[in-house]
Amino acid sequence: MAISANPASTDKTASSDMLALYEHKIMPDKNFPIQMQRNHITKKGTYFYPHWHEYIEMHYIRSGSTTITCAQERYHTAAGDLLIANSNELHSGRLDDSFTDSLVLIFDYSLIAENFLDEYIIFKHYISGDAVIRHLFEDMFREDSWKEPGYRMVIKGKLYELLVYLYRNYAAEHLTLKENAARSRNLKRLNSVIRYIETHYSEPITIAGLAAQVNLSEYRFCHLFKEAMNQSPTNFVNEIRLKKARVLLKESDMPIARIAEHVGFNDFNNFGRQFRRLYGCAPSELRKANPS
Q1: Which side of the chain, N or C, has fewer Cβ within a 10 Å radius?
Q2: 73 pLDDT band (50/70/90 cuts)?
Q3: Looking at residue 115, what is its pLDDT?
């Protein structure tokens, strides 16, 4: 099965839209594998690019609004909402409104819960208006800001309280530790494939060729890819190409037909249909709104 494209040199202009993918985070203190920060974002656009890691990442929105994509699902959030990116899930954030002010909590679930649970919990991605969660986040943030004696013990205790509360009220799925390890291995295998797509999107790409990179049959590869990315490899390739086209439409004076060809679309009409599906407007409309 081919994903048609025209050969072209790798597009350096669109490098700002590169996928970060796997992010290797280091928790310097294994006894306190927790990081907390405040995000106050006022510049529109993507403020953290798609990436994944073994840690759980939570965004509690204090005020304003933002869009966070998690496991390829977009969530439009407002004050009082909590977004959870579970371990080994791709996630990214984009600001389309005036601002967002959020508390970000990142922690190593395996170290936090290793003595208490014999299974891995997949939490719901989106939770709205829960006062218990709000109080716990504000308490943790206050302790982290003031850093009074014993603050790490308080934060760790509050995190345990939060995890138990989420476990009882917002668990979406239960995995064995073995199943979660397999999930992580599959994402790491796909990482090389995604990087290949990112750098060769303008060239001919086939499902068979992608599957061969990770020594899988086409059927097994497509199954694993959809399980991890929540979309087919073909749709993912098209989205990468369309993202590159969007950058070129906004930042270059290259003719639209040439852009379509450059990013790998042989059929100009199909390029227009796919672009409108993803971005809600025709390529020509975006070009008029952003004259170079």
Answers
A1: C
A2: confident
A3: 61
As a whole number of Å, the end-to-end CA separation of the chain is 37
Residue 35 parent element (H or E): strand 34-41
Q: What are the pLDDT digits (tens) for 240-262?
A: 999 899 989 998 999 999 999 99
- Cβ atoms of 111 and 33 within 8 Å: the answer is yes
Is the pLDDT higher at 4 or at 181? Answer: 181
- For β-strands 56-70 and 100-107, DSSP reports them as antiparallel
Sorted by where each begins, the domain ranges of the chain are 2-14+179-289, 31-169
Both tokens of 14, joined, read 């669109």
Q: 3-class DSSP state for residue 123?
A: strand
CA contacts within 13 A on the Cβ side of 211: 18
Mean pLDDT of the 205-233 span: 88
State pTM to two decimals. 0.67
| Residue 251 near residue 45 (C-beta atoms within 8 A) | no
Residue positions counted in the chain: 292
Choosing among 2.60.120.10, 3.40.50.2000, 3.90.1720.10, 3.60.21.10, the CATH entry for 31-169 is: 2.60.120.10
User: How far apart (Å, rounded) are the C-alpha atoms in residues 249 and 292?
Assistant: 8
| Superfamily (CATH) of domain 2-14+179-289 | Homeodomain-like (1.10.10.60)
Q: What is the spatial distance between Cα 63 and Cα 165, in angstroms, rounded to a whole number?
A: 23
Taking alpha carbons only, the member of 131, 59, 116 closest to residue 89 is 59
pLDDT tens across 77-97, in order? Answer: 999 999 999 987 888 999 999
For residue 96, count CB atoms less than 10 angstroms from its CB and return exposed for 0-12, middle for 13-18, buried for 19 or more. Answer: exposed
